[in-house]
Amino acid sequence: MPERSEVPEGWEWVTLPEVADICMGQSPPGSSYNEEGRGLPFFQGKADFTDYHPTIRVYCTEPKKIVKSGDILISVRAPVGPTNVADRVCTIGRGLAGLTPLAGIPTNYILYLLRYKEPEISLWGTGSTFTAINKGHLESIELPLPPLAEQHRIVAAIEALFARLDAANARLDRVPGILKQFRQSVLAAACDGRLTEDWRAEQNVVNRESPVENCEDYIAENIEIPPSWHWSNLKNICTQIVDCPHSTPRWTEEGEICLRTTNFKLGYLDLSEVRYVSRETYEERVSRLEPQPNDIVYSREGGILGIACPIPEGLKACLGQRMMLIRASQSKCSPKYLLNILNSPFVLSKVKTLTGGTSSPHLNVGDVKQFLVPLPPLPEQHEIVRRVDALFALADRIEAEVAAARGKTETMRQSILARAFSGRLVPTEAELARREGREYEPASVLLERIRSGKGAKKTGKESQSRLT
Fold first, then answer.
1. CATH second-level architecture of 210-376?
2. For residue 260, what pLDDT is reported?
3. Mean pLDDT of all residues in 220-232
4. Which of 96, 342, 399, 446 is the one with CA 20 to 30 A from 148?
5. Could you tell me the residue ranges of all domains in the chain?
6. Whether pLDDT at 2 is above 50
7. Long-range contact list for 410-413, CB < 8 A, 24+ apart?
8. 3-class SS of residue 14
9. CB atoms < 10 A from the CB of 130, how many?
């Protein structure tokens, strides 16, 4: 925000109440709330906000504070500063204030100014339970005010540039979905031999026929594998497949890590938030099998059913609930190859078939032991792992670049607003007037008109009071 001495010619520094009426929200009686559409829409705070207009969740039949369509709503309680614009007459609770722009000042001019100042406003919040600001804080907000015609041009320029950023973000938003499909396609190609077709040709791999019983359902689904591969039950290529203890652990403030299904992500464990158990509880829960590097934890129940994650090097943890531990026989199967197979569409589709139609889908150890998996020779398994890792690393880099690009678009928004409110985004009204050889109305005249209107309104109220 420019210093006072830096505002362009024709601009003025003002406080918020000089350009907008402020209405602090007040909570109606709880008995007046309803979700049936009776009364006025009732907005309580930031939770009701979207990018621009709030979403109606509750109505109120005994409103205390009413704002008009086109008024700005600003959150004044935890969090402080976010804004929206009312698209209808509504009532507001204590978490919001309503701002009515005066004398034709564009709603979005004040809205964008407040969004530009939001980081600063958010720091004003006080309170031990939750942060909040009062009317005095709002009244102290200082804003640069250009001539009215210039305000409209600034808003139009901001919105044109923001529309381009929004279009860029919309394209970036599609990338994670594309990368998810890409990863699944890579795993699908890894499962049926397409990923290493050229490698087999270069290695002159000898074909063989090693069918496994009970694989007719896979053949019926037209799932073909190279002749040098064979089918195997999971139990035949693993040394251990054990279930978790069927009890909720007793949590402690510190101790040993106990894995939860909330830690499961596709192909890795997110350990940013962990829970702990005592050493005694840990020993009880690892009595069947203590997780080791190269082991796989597999979710067997709930919303993330069928997700496989590796135990990373250096992690000492026991199993929580709704999961099992799988240990591959490394003389037969690469643990990372098995991880990729378990997370592939190939196995996930079979999991859905086994659990479809149940209200509480789950797998037991017996189900998992019977999984049929396509098994290449070990050298090809290692090559598949290498290629999957390389392609996933490429996807990870693209994701990081997308995240960085999203960050840049948000930085650009602030840069656009900074230019707008320092008079550098569009030609100033004073510049245009000189160029076109005409007079112009500076912001000081607009302010005087607002003050006169407020004075006339106040005088009218006093006269009405004397008459009554």
1. Alpha-Beta Complex (3.90)
2. 94
3. 79
4. 96
5. 4-146, 148-205+377-427, 210-376
6. no
7. 412/165, 413/162, 413/165
8. strand
9. 12
